[in-house]
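Hello Y.,

Per our agreement to keep a running log of every chain we model this quarter, I'm adding this entry. I've kept the format consistent with earlier entries: sequence first, then predicted structure.
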Amino acid sequence: MGVKLEYFRMMLYLSFPVAMFWISNQAEYFEEYVIKRKREIFPRDEEARRKEMEDFKVRMRVRMEQQRLKRISAESNE
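Predicted structure for the entry above:
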């Protein structure tokens, strides 16, 4: 009885990690999830979205430049 139990335990200890590795490497199980997640993180380029991003960059540049000019003028007035 003891030897059979040890064989069973050893088989379980070896087969579980191998089975998990095999399942996790099956692309068809995760393909839909990965594609959906990729599109969520990296949406397709849309003209309106690109324009909005460019406008945001311009606003941020102008804001940073104004802050620099205020800082420079405050330093020069001292």
